[in-house]
User: What shape does this take?
Amino acid sequence: MRYLIRRLEFFVVTLWAAVTLNFILPRLLPGGPEVALRTRFHGRINPATVKSLEVALGIHSDQNLLQQYVSYLGNMLRGDFGVSLGFYPQRVSYVIMLALPWTLGLVGTATVIAFVLGTLIGIFGAWRRGGVLDSLLPPVFVVISAFPYFWVGLLTILIFAVTLGWFPQAFGSSSEVTSEFSWPYISDVVYHSILPAFTIVLTSIGGWILTMRNNMITTLAEDYIKMARAKGLSTSRIMFQYAARNAILPNLVGFAMSLGFVISGALLVEIVFNYPGLGTFLLQAVNNEDFSLMQALFFLITFAVLLAVLAADVLTAWLDPRTRERA
Amino acid sequence: MGLDVRLIADQTAARADEVRPQAGALRLVGAALRHNRKALAGAIILGLFVVVAIIPGILAPYDPHAQIFDQTLPPSGAHLLGTTGNGQDIFSQLIWGTRESLAIAIVAGLMATLLSVLIGVSSAYLGGSGDHVLSLLTDVFLVLPTLPLMIVLAAYARGGGLAVLIVVIVITGWSYGARQLRSQALSLRHREFLDAARSRGERGFYIITAEILPTMTSLIVANFLGAALYAVLAAAGLQFIGLGNPSDMSWGTMLFWAENNGALNAGSPLWAIVPGLCIALLGAAFALLNYAFDEISNPALRPVRRRR
Amino acid sequence: GTTSSSGGTPSKGGTLVIDNESGTLWACGFNPLNPNDASFAFGPVYEQLVYVNLLSGKQTPMLASSYKWSSDNKTLTFTIRSGVKWSDGQPFTADDVLYTFNLIKSNSALDLQSVWSVLSGVSKQGSDQVVMTFQSPSAPSFYYIAGQQPIVPQHIWSQIKDPVSENDAVPIGTGPFLVAQGGCTPQNIAYTRNPHYWQPGLPYLDKVNYPAFTDNDPANQYLATGQAQWGGQFIPNIDTYWVNKDKANRHYWFPPIQNVNLFMNLTVKPLDNKLVRQALAFGIDRGKVSKIGEYGYQPAGNQTGVVTPTFNDWYDSNQAAKYNYKFDPAKAQSLLQQAGLTKGSDGIFKDSSGKRLSFTVISISGYTDWTASLQVVADNLKQAGVEVKEQDFSHDDYFNKLFTGDFQLGYGSLSTSPGPNPFYELRNTLYSQTTAPLGQTASGDYGRFNDATTDKLIEQFTATTDSAEQHKIMKQIEGIVLEQVPVIPVTESVSWYQYDTKVFAGWPTKDDPYAAPAPWNIPDWEQVMLRVHKK
Amino acid sequence: MAATIKQQPILQTVGLTRHFRVGSLLSRRYLHAVDDVNLTIGGGQVVALVGESGSGKSTIARLLALIYRPTAGEIFFKGQRLSERRSRRDVLEYHGRVPMVFQDPYSSLNPVYPASHALMRALKLHQPELSHPARRRAAEEILASVGLTPPATFLTKYPHELSGGQRQRIGFAVALACSPELILADEPVSMLDVSVRIGILNLMAELRRLKSVSILYITHDIASARYVADQLLVMYAGHVVESGPAEDVLAHPKHPYTQLLLSAVPDPRAPLTSMPAADVGEPPRVVDPGEGCRFRWRCPYAIDVCSTDTPRLRELRPSHTAACHVATSDMETARA
Amino acid sequence: MIAVKPLLEVDDLTVDYDADAGAVRAVDQVSLQVAPGEFIGIVGESGCGKSTLLYAIARLLSAPATIAGGSVRLKGRDLLAMDEEALREIRWRDYSLVMQSAMNALNPVLTVGAQLRDTIDAHDAIPKEESPNRSAALLRMVGIDPVHLKSYPHQLSGGMRQRAMIAMALVFTPELVIMDEPTSALDVVAQRSLMLQIKELQRRIGFAAIFVTHDMSLVSHFSDRLAVMYAGQIVELGKTRDLFDDPKHPYTRALMQSFPSISGPKATLQGIPGSPPDLAHPPAGCRFAPRCPLVEPRFRVEPPAMVAIGSTLVRCHLYGRDH
Ligand SMILES: Nc1ncnc2c1ncn2[C@@H]1O[C@H](COP(=O)(O)OP(=O)(O)OP(=O)(O)O)[C@@H](O)[C@H]1O
Ligand SMILES: Nc1ncnc2c1ncn2[C@@H]1O[C@H](COP(=O)(O)OP(=O)(O)OP(=O)(O)O)[C@@H](O)[C@H]1O
Ligand SMILES: [Mg+2]
Ligand SMILES: [Mg+2]
Assistant: This one.
């Protein structure tokens, strides 16, 4: 319990620091909403209009930085992210909700697949040292993970979508299928996600294979594994209950972090596959100098990462009794 | 130790705890090359690129920027890889692009490692509230979404060229290493040779630089390799989405141009494939070296010869 | 007319797919008075009073069945069409028009075309007439008032509390299409047939899909794989990429609509010197810029400032021939010498104080064709003894620099949209009333060109509705541009347009330019959506 | 006996206390590693500090070596308060006079340097006037004096090329680098094999005899304490529970913990005895322990007052004190 | 010498570690017999191959260690010839193992109870419903409250952990328990108490024990016989009392002289000069020759053979035929 309280402490402090950075960062950008408004109206906008639009956008250029900061913190706490400049008059929360499910669905699934698959390969590889899983796959995937994944994406599109025509090369679903909870729709979404998910899995699995394998090897050298063998336990029991369960502990937080980064890491994949996700919005927000959307996305991503880390902590505490009491 | 937060459990726990007799980064690398085929492969690739980066003028037949040829020519004797949609020689671009791509990887890798060492090790050594603050800083940077942060920073300094790109990569890339180094330094803190140094009256600065750092060589080298790999990919990604300086000549900007001119579909696929391949190769070189390095600093990870 | 190119009665039905990279996902707002949303609502959903063809200026009555200028050109009277219904079945009346104009008057943020900067009042006359009174004669404003102002239904909009931040997710308009509840997702807008549409038998199409593309390449691939039929895309190497995959049916037509200029800040020395500007004009190989930077798809511009061939009948070829601005580095160098500059040992000219003739040209990052173009320009000008370095900014920052005069050279087009004749662009390029002191926001004339004769000519043009008179004035303006070189048109941006005739016919073509053809030509795209039909 | 303390003790502590904070920001708890320790080390004296694992022995050594700062209490070096020695010169001098030898010969030498690195550094710090060759000569002399011969070969060897005993000798060599007056030896032999242990113990005896340094010998091996020490201090859970001349304490242990400890020492020459009842290896509570005797949970003689009052050291025999409410001067040991 | 048929027979067991620099012979031709119910101690300095010997006997060595020769028979069956499946059968039922540090030998993420149950389930020897009772009984037997079945290893003190390990080793009342320094992580008080407990259990259950330690005095009262190992070899093997009273091998003799005592007169002790040889390059002749006070030149080239003197076996030239 004390362990979790300590983690909670960390959660709050880090969130605060990140949120504050979020506040500062966009304000470092040149220009600002006023400039953006002016260009949007081709310079033919009078100051009164600018003022009225700023009010509508929740921009308070008359407040000093501290006042802005305080009201910003309040808004973040309430989950009120204001109105998007780039999608004006839409609210930021509305804009985000448009894209969030897609990002979560695609990259979340792909990350989970990569983690599970990579971890399993790592476990079996380390168990049979010198076998194919151990001597071939890790180096191969480690090399592949060094490939820029937008490039891998481009190639997969060229090969599997454009040339072979097996998969669609863009979008999260086809425009002919109405979005509802039905088999045609779901299968359509899955069909559209195969290539981008494949790209993510292909380029990220190497890391999981390697770390899991190395942890496993370290764990397999432990005395309690020797002991388990001496006790005559079955192979699977030793491999999972004794070795893998201990070896996976250090990876959980890493996994949580990457799960949290889903939203941001998806950016390049989303762009290449024209996927309707948050990453695309983020790039747009930056290009549009859409403060509020940018801040909200930053906040969301940071929050998600922290939440995932917290979840991983809980999981770690559950799996590893030592952490529960560690002072 | 109060708020001793461990955000990332040390994935290289084994390495972090071990302090083996090790003599200098150079000798380690030398050993790596002699005994490890993966390291050798990585080193050869890297070496090739280094040579190309040093003498591009001799290898490249044309000015990489000059838009003087017919557009979208297929590969031929005159243009080994054909020409771009803008009438430039792809091969010459590739050769000249090596220099900047490699420079980013190495400079950013070094700087990020330096920052990691500085912050990670001082954090561990200082302990107490100094550790608190530095750890928190590290964790915040770990949690902050890297790619978006990079995009914002790069957009901020739009078109600022190489230096900006490197700074952005360093700012976003140091934290992971710092955390690893901190945890290794922390485990070192309980090593008695540090207490021994303290009890004979050494100053803190000496202890950090002359007693702690040399024992961490292998982790620092590994960190550099990781940071360089990160720099390669990050720079390529940023340049690809147009946040580099498009008039620079590097593989990432080549990809940017290729993408914007639909190279893969518009008749000059090599324009996109080859620079991507080079990035992949450079990345792979660092990844292989890192992989091999892991095996060298932790013998348990070495491949085993199966007897039966 | 609604004649189909294949003859016979066009068949009904079919789903047309638009392919246009907008760089954004759809936010699904359709407020036609909002600058972000207007391009999805104005045209197929909300209509204007009169359609003015952007390419030819040809007019087609829409919600106004006719109009009439007063003799002093200060009053404009529209007769509102009867029998038009809103898509919810309510009748459309002159009150809706009156309401719309009053709405944008009281909410200046909605007055996207700044019509109230020329209007003084709007009133209803009889049951079906609306009278606009002008502050001063302003014939070209007709394009904005009649051709660019969408009309919204009073019975809906009067209920809306804040029309400025209105989202209008399910828009009610008079246009041929509507967007049903759920018809819009972040990745696609589905326009479906409006059963109440006032033009009998139209539209032919059941549905138009407008998918969202955030990047050019996926959009091009989508088009290339035949999933979309109507493109508004820059496609590199279009013959290889697209046409050759179905030569019989795939066509493109890129009518130029606006200049891509080298803007010069005339407050920067020595750009204030006419000779230097002329030298620059001679120092650019427009043909090569077009070929390398734009694959030849955007044709070279000309120094009259008139976009050709689109506005050929305004173009004064005699004057142009007299000046003969073609790539001539020697001529450029001699002009620079005349201007009192001397060539330095590095091949770059210097002024008397030794300052090199070196300029920074600003551009928009991500606009790679411009960057490629500027690489050619820089190379050209180097031969003329002028150094040019490119610096990229985000779209907004770039325009802010242009507006406030914070630049030396700028590459690009006006931020305002072009009009149906060259006057619209030239006015905004040259008219000193549109400019502002350095540091303040100018809506036009970024280079701070200030010439009384030009201003006078522009005002004369504004005051007349007589075409012959207008042509005469335009020739004089062209002469000034050729002589003074306040701006250097380098290439001409075009209406990117690809069409696939495999399934659909009725496309605008070079021979039947019934509308500016790109799907992003607002509101021209409505005309295309009305006429295209299944073969 | 050697218990004759010269005019002034080399080192003396008064109420030396060290707590460690454990737990998070929200729950502050303190681990009492060392509580209120008064000890005195005279010139040329070997004082042994024994006690079970975690009783605070190393913490005391580290406090004395200035690696930790005391939470409370004061250390006097030759009558002078250490807290007043602030300047770098003074501190350095103290380090030179009171060096420390560590428990683990495998981790107390930096693996990346030759084993002599620490020795050379110590010479450089404490005898900066020496030139490089002079320093080498001095180093060789010192190495020879701790039994590492030929000394020249040991200057270039790396720690992993040395055996545990040799490394521990290097440890003492470092301690000798600047005419020490008191060597703090924290379990210098506990990680060594029996066969080499005695060599190090003999080396300590030698050093005391030839260089007349005092030694604080920390150990949990009472037999070796008896072998080298004049004075014996027994610690339990941060408290000194018994102290006195070594032979006297061993012959007449007063504190129940000392008695337990003595009875547990395996001795092949003595007959096998069964254990007293309180043999549970229950670790003492040292986190926020509160008042009371810390041995009371394991003590067969515990009475009510033990859980309310912390016993103070009382002299029960001549210069032999014990901190126990129950022990009396005539109560005899359980060993008999 | 041993009247009854031995439970365990180890013959010429030799173990190598493959290392970069060449093979390290950590156990060299060790022969040992253990009678049923016998408590045999193995003592020796760190690195002399004690653990390697034990794990070789238990067939628990993994790469880079390889068994280069010899045989291990448990109740007449050759353990070295068995495959993993057959081994799994007899493991823990016929012989079990107690390791040096219970902290490392117990799975940190499973409760003590779960680990006991694991063991029981793996052999299906006891009906499922009985296993909790059995576990509780076991813990009680080693003096731990059965509530600790629900405890995780880190929640127990060092002594309790070691006891739990011993309880686990006795699940199936095996005939042989192999113990690798089970007490050396504990302090003297706990060490003593655990030793007494082990001895008591052995008396009650009657298993034979091989007990490895580096502390001679620790086993002095507990073992029936004692083997002294030096540099991978057994140099002396005999009755514990005999060894203490009359050590034959110079190494044993020197060892006896190197620990001080808390009783008796204070005498200056000598210790053994030098350090054990590097097993990658052992001396050609007698391995103790470089440190031996009684060495003769011949000893440095000829390896000594085992010689029986009474019930004691000694590997020393001094007792050879020609001496
Ligand atoms: N730096 C530290 N932070 C927190 N607790 C500490 C620290 N150093 C020591 N302790 C605690 O203080 C207590 C005393 O430790 P110390 O090392 O002095 O014991 P010791 O008697 O030397 O034990 P051993 O015989 O095992 O060496 C222990 O409970 C230990 O956990
Ligand atoms: N994995 C290994 N690779 C190479 N040599 C090894 C390995 N493990 C052990 N050795 C060597 O084998 C020898 C015997 O080791 P072993 O662990 O059996 O000794 P031990 O007597 O149990 O020592 P300790 O008392 O320290 O436990 C040692 O010299 C050691 O260096
Ligand atoms: Mg200690
Ligand atoms: Mg061992």
About this structure: Chain C touches chain A through 54 residues (CB under 8 Å). Chain C has a mean pLDDT of 91. Residues 429 and 445 of chain C are 4 Å apart (CA to CA).
